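Appendix B. One record, verbatim.
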Amino acid sequence: MKLRNHYLRENITGYLFILPQLLLFLLFVVYPILEGVRLSLYKVQYQQETFVGFDNYVTLFNDPVFFKSIVNTVIFVVFIVLLTVVFSLFAASSVFDKNAKYVSFIRGSYYIPVMVSMVVMSMVWSFLLNPANGLISYAAREMDWSVVNLLGNKSTVLPVIIFVTFATNVGQAIILYIASMIGVPKDLFEAAEVDGASRLQVIFRILIPLVQPTTIYITIINIIAVLKIFVVIQLLTGGGPNNASVTMMYYLYNNAFKFNQLGVASAVGVIMFAITMLLSVPQLRALFKDK
């Protein structure tokens, strides 16, 4: 009986410690999700709500711009996540075992763009890519090339946004990979060296398998971040040209704050949440299964 009371007191103490965080989680995460699901079933006009069932979803799936936003968002997720994982693996595996001062310099160099606000970075790229007076257009005119309008061309606007987003955020993944690789036991590398393994064999047969949990984590956080991509679109293209760069988050923003269609915007949010879960849950299952 005393042992049972002891365990009960320990459990109560633990729950009391996590109670503030749990309340904040319920208030700022769970409640908005449930409220978003509820609003997606209503037509909201100022303070008046009218239940319309799944009409908002029907409206979405009858809108070609919404399908365009889904396609663009999927393209961004696939290419940005792949570029981030591949490049950060390459960069981290190239420097993780070098001189500590050199590694620190590389960490700082790649992490500087992450520290800068995405708004600031987007404004810088907007200046560089401006077809009228941007630096890139100026250089093209000086070399007697044609006018460069990368953001106004349907075939180049997506690659440009992918590159800008990737270049701004890749530093975080490099930092995580370097930290993970430094933690790999040194005796594994010594054994590989004794066996005559090349650096490529060490990378592909030792490093990459052992940093798989980091790869899964980076994949998940980048999927979530790219699904919410908005600032770059808003400041560089405004969804143009002709909705060529519109994303689901930008489509949600337009419906919520420009067209005052809160029900439709909430339906977009619910669909985004479902897509996020579909893309993230397999990664999480693989992580926990591995552990």
